[in-house]
Amino acid sequence: RRQLLHVDAYRLRRPEDLAGLLLEEVARPPCNLVIEWPERVAGREPPEAWRLRLEATGPESRRILLCGSTK
């Protein structure tokens, strides 16, 4: 069983603001951390992070892209 933790980073002003959320203390294994608006915390995500991207391809269709870590 794994815990799912969601972070909405939209209101963070700087990537450094992510440290104030104390995620290292909360997001311990087994945990899946989901960061919405990841561009707001660019460079602060864990090295093993995966990226899930949803793209609109039409009025009622979407494309889902999942990119794994290179580290």
Layout of helices and strands:
Layout: E1 3-8, H1 23-26, E2 31-36, E3 51-58, E4 61-67
Parallel strand pairs: 1-2
Antiparallel strand pairs: 3-4
Notable characteristics:
71 residues; mainly beta; two-stranded parallel sheet; two-stranded antiparallel ribbon; 1 helix; 4 strands; 38% strand; globular
Structural notes for this entry:
The chain is mostly beta strands. The protein is built from one helix and four strands. It has a two-stranded parallel sheet. A two-stranded antiparallel ribbon has the order 3-4. The model has no long low-confidence stretch (mean pLDDT 84).
| Form type | globular
How far apart lie the N and C ends?
Answer: 25 Å
Report mean pLDDT, rounded to a whole number.
Answer: 84
Q: Helical region count? A: 1
- Please report which band the strand proportion falls in: under 5%, 5-15%, 15-25%, 25-35%, 35-45% or over 45%: 35-45%
Q: What sequence of helices (H) and strands (E) makes up the elements?
A: EHEEE
Rg from Cα: 14 Å
> In terms of per-residue confidence, which ranges show pLDDT below 50 for 5 or more consecutive residues?
none
| Number of distinct beta strands | 4
Structural class call reads mainly beta
Strand order of the largest sheet: 1-2
Q: Level of helix content?
A: under 10%
Largest sheet descriptor: 2 strands, parallel
